[in-house]
Design a protein that fits this description.
The structure is a homodimer. Chain A has about 425 residues and is α/β, with parallel strands linked by helices. The first copy, chain A, has two domains: about 250 residues, Carbamate kinase (3-Layer(aba) Sandwich), CATH 3.40.1160.10; about 160 residues, VC0802-like (2-Layer Sandwich). Chain A contains 13 helices and 20 strands. In chain A, a hairpin with a 5-residue loop joins strand 7 and strand 8. The two termini of chain A are about 35 Å apart.
């Protein structure tokens, strides 16, 4: 017997037929003697409809009321799943954020979870009940509904898993696991049986859209093994695969991964724009001014590259911002020209960030050198480089995305045998 | 300055354009210095969609989960109206049943209101805020959402009015008031400026679909003047009409009605079926058996007529049931034939109940005699008669509905001058 959380996204509960399929997955785990909490998203498309209504109501609207409206989606899907489970003979009860309660801060629309009364759900497990938890929502101290931001149901699932001391959090999604890269670009991409939390964190933040970044952070902090699998797998019959698990990817501690690869995956993100400041003064405070102004405008800066000054007085500075914020960021920089002091600003939304990720890099030299050499052989110009312990990210012309990703995927031996 | 409740039904909040129209009505009252609580239904058609989903999930489903799903409709509309009001510069906050709280018993799906923490809303009035209350929903002691049954938003509105000590409850609907009878059948039907609670209660329960019966009961018990008006009236500009009110019908205490008519209105209900038992034993316990069996099958009996026995040993008994329950009621009676003891049972769904209603009847003799004479002149056969202090109801062949209603409407001087 284990205590598990099962999370199903919007496409998995898009209609009653699919909700019944979800219920069969839950029944399988329940019948096997497990204590089960299910976390569900809203029916696919439903949240978009609700969001559209709030925008139609007023372009700039109160976040408290937005949360009240939008949280209705998960309220509906959790109630419907509870009904279907009961119909299948599985005792079930829906739980809204305020009923558990799942306490958050009061940052409406992008709330962060503070505390979950896991004992409420555990008490129901003892009564033989499955808990169907409405994802994405919580309640703030002022008794108002909050939501966790788009994709927040993943975070709900992992946080609930931590709160009830679950043995595992299963994320059912519309793909059958995490791949070495996007299979639409590299047909040879392989599904990873296991991936370390740290690696998944980089992949999630770099554009692999399987899991929300915050949920991976939470899983890592609380050490919750998180299993990504397809909700379209047949729900009944024996589950096969490594460690008695069906096809999927287990996100876990690195020491649970026996055969550690040097490079685990190639991620890429097209949601980037590059801004370069030429000949800024090489003196303290300049960077603070640039990034302070952007921060004031709520623009997140990602890659920052600043070269050592050639003449000791001036230097060049390059950074990336989300593509959606590009025009605004350029305007902010131009408006601050006198305070920053630069000779020229240029920008381009035509860039892509490609990243090579792998915990094995820590102990292996030469990964970057191989990378630069392989790209040079294909005449791909690297516009900026940034590295961490377990990843190397480069900025290149967007036109070379596919070529670069395929080249690197093959270079590090990730192609399917 | 007054404290008022404004209630808007599903067609009044069917889309964002109509919600904006509702908001203008609210803004008018707010700008006039009133303290305002608005009670809203779900957007038209939305509740039906949610109900259909629960049925698709399981034909016989848990009422707790049904309530969780269905209450989402009012959650959405109340949040959207709060947003639109804020956009118009009216401070507003949405209130769900559990947030006020609006406590009910735990009869899920058909819950009855026990207590409303009106002080929560009054506190917000003091802060200059309009309270937008999600109708139709409450919370039971076990912390689960309850709903009040279809049309329950009217009841929510009147109950909130009582809880906050409102001066008036305005019911905005898709008609401009209460009529002497259905204008689709009698073009000469007149809108009533005022109608007494007791009369409205009879009209509501007899098929005039303007207001839910329970809301009229509540308004009567708490003495809340309830004003029925059209939500399609222009929301801005001066409000005209009797007592500074716009066109509509005020439901109030009878002593506030100066010119009391003998007959106020003619109601009719086609939702009836008639069952007659011939030659049942005229002895104690027989009626208890008949209506006990029907009650066990959750069938409501309305009109009951039993004649004085002719031979001292047998009598005939006629009663009506909702047309939807007719077949089941017949089956129950036939299955209980031995216990009841009757010679013959017959039934017909082809009947209509027509009622003449008016508080003036109390002090005027001859109303019934006039009625029977007028119908006899049109050769309309009366199948059963039942009376109360302020109404006379008859059962007739459904084919004569229009003729009977028109005849009575004209007989009692209700036709428009």
């Amino acid at each position: 017997m284990a205590r598990i959380v099962m999370k199903f996204g919007g496409t998995s509960v898009a209609d009653l037929e699919r909700i019944r399929n979800v219920a069969r997955h839950v029944k399988r785990e329940f019948d096997a003697g497990n204590e089960v909490a299910v976390v569900v998203s809203a029916m696919a498309g439903f949240t978009n409809q609700l969001v559209a209504w709030t925008r139609e109501a007023a372009p700039l609207h109160d976040a408290r009321e937005y949360d009240t409206v939008v949280a209705a989606g998960e309220q509906i899907s959790s109630g419907l799943l509870a009904i279907v489970l009961q119909e299948m003979g599985v005792p079930a009860r829906s739980w809204l954020g305020w009923q558990i309660p799942l306490m958050t801060d009061n940052a409406h629309g992008v709330a962060r979870i503070r505390q979950i009364a896991g004992e409420t759900l555990i008490e129901r497990f003892r009564q033989g009940q499955v808990a169907v938890v409405a994802g994405f929502q919580g309640i703030a101290e002022d008794n108002r509904i909050t939501t966790l931001g788009r994709g927040g149901s993943d975070t709900s699932a992992v946080a609930v898993a931590a709160a009830i001391g679950a043995d595992r959090c299963d994320i059912y999604t519309d793909v059958d696991g995490v791949y070495t890269t996007d299979p639409r670009i590299v047909p040879e991409a392989r599904r990873l049986d296991r991936v370390a939390f740290e690696e998944m964190l980089e992949m999630a933040s770099l554009g692999a859209k399987v899991l929300q970044v915050r949920s991976v952070e939470l899983a890592m902090v609380h050490g919750i093994p998180t299993f990504v699998r397809s909700s379209f797998d047949p729900p009944d019959g024996p589950q096969t695969g490594p460690g008695n698990l069906p096809t999927g990817t287990l996100i876990c501690d690195e020491d649970e991964i026996v055969e550690q690869q040097i490079v685990t995956g190639i991620a890429f993100s097209k949601d980037e724009a590059k801004i370069t400041l030429r000949r800024v003064a090489d003196q303290p405070g300049v960077a603070a001014t640039v990034f302070g102004r952007l921060s004031d405008a709520h623009i997140n800066v990602d890659v920052i590259v600043q070269n050592v000054s050639a003449d000791g007085r001036h230097t060049d500075m390059t950074f990336t911002v989300p593509r959606a914020d590009f025009e605004q960021a350029m305007a902010v920089i131009e408006a601050s020209a006198d305070d920053i002091g630069y000779e020229e600003v240029s920008g381009s939304a035509d860039v892509v960030k490609v990243s090579v990720i792998g915990i094995g890099m820590r102990s292996h030299a030469g990964v970057a050198a191989q990378m630069f050499k392989a790209l040079a052989e294909k005449s791909i110009n690297i516009q900026a480089i940034t590295t961490s312990e377990i990843k190397i990210s480069i900025l290149i012309d967007a036109a070379y995305t596919e070529l670069a990703v395929r080249t690197l995927h093959s270079l590090y031996g990730l192609d399917e045998a």
